[in-house]
Amino acid sequence: METNKTCYICNKECDKGIEILGSYICRNCEQEMIDEEGSELKMEYYKSKVKSLWRNNLS
């Protein structure tokens, strides 16, 4: 059973998701990122958050 964690993308507490580079991404955000129906603006937001996650872990 997973404990509640705060999503790096939406900042909401969720109990299911994935951990990437020490940061948590909830299932809702994960699904939206892989969904082909997402808007271009939303995809740009997700890309910037993932880039930020990588930058934070490389420094």
TrEMBL record:
It holds the Pfam family Gin. It comes from the Bacteria. InterPro entries: Sigma-G_inhibitor_Gin (IPR019700). This is Sigma factor G inhibitor Gin.
